[in-house]
């Protein structure tokens, strides 16, 4: 019987959706008799209980403090809960907030630590966390010998967010005393939202030489928008000036750093292009040439005409 | 090499061509280089290097079979006599050293070879004058003589004798050249052949000369050599010529039994840019709509070209049965080591042909030694001893600052790093490539960006090898103080050039009055690339430049909906006649309704209008009128032409202020640890990309030589006085009295 | 006034690589090492402060690593930092961010800087641990992923912006001395000149052992142990067949599935 603790994240009073992924990850390693508690620090934590009442959550620990993110306060909450409850696992989403407080809390606790975890399981009862290494070229299985508590941050967009409706017990917890060194002063909204952001895009529709002519490009811009993808392209398309350089994926262009789904249409898959996208988890290649090298790195392949596929795709979104 | 389990194995699987075995599928088709038999060292080293680089077979350029075929002023090979055989033999031996096959292309040009040196008249099926500019700019200049049956027999014997000399020189392959409207093609092609005897009329009759020639050669050489013919399977003028679906395929079927392999392409000589397609108009594999039918008509191996630089495409055309063997001319020049690089999986190291056809331009303009934009060592193998993949190790530990990462600077930095020098390459742009970054955005010139990409990839690899080296992009422009304080022992200034913003031009060597690119309605090409100034509906291009900038910008603006006029002192894109981009460029200008005012200069620019004049508007009669007076009547052709935006394509000027200031402060070099400051590329003098690249390469090779700013003498190949070319000849002057 | 910048030498893998015999790391022969990209920005940020202070500030670079790591250290020094500290001990061979932070904490105690910068993460493992763990050990104010910094040398507070998801930034003040992890793009890192590179070779570097810092091997154990390391499996493309309509329908299904639509 052990306690699993998830540290929820909120921003401006709204729950960060990745919290539900962290809950799902914790739930996935739950053993019979384990309990799962979620702690939320906010100005009005009660207002977030509903959003946290998902499958698997036994308890919500409501810490009434402030909506401002204060790493010192969050660490104090973790330290207090750890002292009181001796949780086996403390998990948080691998968001920017967690970057500030998780490592500091971990050294104060002297616990095990793994960040940006993309898979969790038990091997012979031992907790094993998987994360990537060497710029995503390898996977690393980590364990935590001798650690009674392990702090984990969970990579976003990997675990299916916890859903359903639960009826967790709500425990109110007074904000612990903390020497808070930061003071919120305001927000700066993102720059031009219409900007093209290949490195930041999770879903990219990319077109290559197969598009043939500049006049054919527009329909793929439309398709990308309909599907909610960012339109990318291979070098010849940018070199021809048919699309701005900011959309070019590859060695002389952009790295699709955050991409998880890459649909390549009419892209043959030159080495230079692959540099920018071959790491992507799910690559779908559409090409008339069955020998195109793009198929060797793709998860799914369609040997066919990109225009026909594009036309048919439109009906689905 | 086959069966390593790689997808590319098929490219390294040997194939029989008659009595010979080609060790892989890389075949350098015949192509001119400007060496011929005049420069045997050049010929040997350039072709031999390709054997070293992995090509399975390497051919000569067109090799004249007899003095009746004299291609002067263009320099091509000849196999007329023992002297020629001696001069070709080093090429053969060099190729054989690397296990490749050597081929000789038997060339009889008919009236497409002007005979300017020998003053002979060629023989053909009929009398006609060449549609090709045998003398550059002068199509229709050269005539032939209609052969009767005696002459036909004699001509065929020329082929046989040349084939025997080729065999005895050591060639493994003899290729009867019938592409590009040469030799036997003039007999097959009804465009030329209107005879009514057994050599004209029906397909069989028109094919007779070619078939008989092949039969006679085969009889003479037997299986000593592989017999190949290079054939244009479609001359691209419909039923007026050879069409693939008609005579083309029929001929393949008819002639196959006499041959060991086919070497096929499309087009003729007058527009051979349809074969050696410039990237502006044609992509990789562009001939395949025609070529893909050939294998249906023959069981002999087929080689064809299509600017194959991409191993994926090579696999595709072999695996889908378009060809058996990858033919290449230009890609083999840009990268003589392409086969080895593919075999070793080093695709990113391939120096990809950009399809600019500057190599070809040198033959077209009259046969000076060829050059390559991508490969600065092309043509320099023998005379300067430059190997494209191997470099003399650094002779000192003096580090180098290169200011400017354009064609000259990036090539100089690359070669210096290859040699082992510590190099810092600095540029204001965010990307290596300098001017090429702009040029590659012009319509159709995207593949020119391969020039930049090769250097970018190589430099990025090289800086990883030497942590002391560095590429610093997006930097503020360096001042002389920055350079002096940089701490480099040697400084190379490669800051490029700019188009004159005031209309400086070669006809007056002065600005055009009113030309001022600081005004809103006047733009230089750089300002067009920047895209910051608005461009009005009516665009007037004032063109004093002979190359691509005017037609390219005209195309760009016409496609964007502007009304474009080019006022041009010379032919628009005149140099593009030499790069074979000319005909389709003119078609494109016509299609886009671009107005061309020829022989037109510009005398004044005002908002909303330009004053133009005919450059021949002065009187033709010269007369001395005294000091201060023109010796002709005043040009009376000036007239105003309305427009909204003026684009000045006049002269270029070096960006040399940094270099000049550093030279002026030479006294400060020593205390800052600077040994020397050099200026290269356009910063020294504006030139084409190929020559800027060469200059950067040259300095990097010669940086330890005496006075590296100035070119080191090269090895010259000239006939040596007092030595006979052929055995038994007397080299002394002998009057025939 | 002193700023300590902790940097890392990161390792990239060649296109093809092999694992070490024990299966817990990649064979070192396949490493290509370089200064962590993020550290170019943290060093630059320190240099900007130093220059704004009329060079009255000292910038000290600290690195944990064997002799190999000297390259990365000298790269940082070549940009104008004043001196370096390199700590190494065989016991640090398996060090993670937490173990490195324990060493750095001792370095900070010794150097007493007014400000500590690290990169927001390392380009090879991206754990984003070292800087904030160091702050935790020191009990110093700290914030990660700083994309803008307004700090007058010696001031009691600094104004920072931290970069959040989706491009949103939060403006906050933070008490100093602090540990800040610096995000890419906060500035435009300078390149070293050849003179800078030559001078860096002459700059003082303290080479310290765990002993010198009063640490034992037992105090620098990592917070996790590598059980195994392996290359992720990549198969051949699964071909979607059928008519164009059928292929597109399946593709739409895949997209919706992965996008949670």
- For the largest sheet of chain A, list the strands in their spatial order: 7-11-6-1-4-5-12
Q: What is the mean predicted local confidence, pLDDT of chain B?
A: 96
By helix and strand content of chain B, what is the structural category? alpha/beta
Q: Main β-sheet of chain A: number of strands, strand sense, barrel status?
A: 7 strands, parallel
Number of helices of chain B: 22
CATH fold name of the largest domain in chain B: TIM Barrel
What does this protein structure show overall?
Chain A has helices at 18-28, 46-52, 71-85, 96-109, 217-227, 235-239, 271-277, 294-297, 306-314, and strands at 3-7, 10-11, 14-15, 35-42, 59-64, 89-93, 112-117, 119-123, 126-133, 138-143, 150-154, 169-174, 182-188, 203-207, 230-233, 261-265, 282-287, 300-303. Chain A has 317 residues and is α/β, with parallel strands linked by helices. Chain A has a 7-stranded parallel beta sheet, sandwiched between helices. A 5-stranded parallel beta sheet of chain A has the order 15-14-16-17-18. Chain A has a 3-stranded antiparallel beta sheet with strand order 8-9-10. In chain A, helix 3 (71-85) crosses helix 4. Chain A is elongated and about 65 Å long. Chain A starts with a strand and ends with a helix. The mean pLDDT of chain A is 91. With 737 residues, chain B is of the alpha/beta class. Chain B is built from 22 helices and 28 strands. In chain B, strands 3-4-6-9-10-11-12-13 form an 8-stranded parallel barrel, surrounded by 5 helices. A 5-stranded parallel beta sheet of chain B has the order 16-15-14-17-28, with helices on both faces. In chain B, strands 19-26-20-21-22 form a 5-stranded parallel beta sheet. In chain B, helix 6 links the parallel strand 10 and strand 11 (261-265). In chain B, helix 3 runs parallel beside helix 5 (203-221) and helix 14 packs parallel to helix 22. The mean pLDDT of chain B is 96. The longest helix of chain C is centred in the N-terminal third of the chain and has 16 residues, at 37-52. In chain C, helix 2 (70-78) packs across helix 5 and helix 3 (97-111) packs across helix 4 (130-138). Chain C has a single domain (2-220), classed as HUPs (Rossmann fold, 3-Layer(aba) Sandwich), CATH 3.40.50. The termini of chain C are far apart. Chain C has 261 residues and is α/β, with parallel strands linked by helices. A 9-stranded mixed beta sheet of chain C has the order 9-8-7-10-6-1-4-5-11, sandwiched between helices. A two-stranded antiparallel sheet of chain C has the order 2-3. Chains A and C meet through helix 3, helix 4, strand 7, strand 9 and strand 10 of A and strand 2, helix 3, helix 4, strand 7 and strand 8 of C. Strand 18 (300-303) of chain A pairs parallel with strand 13 of chain C.
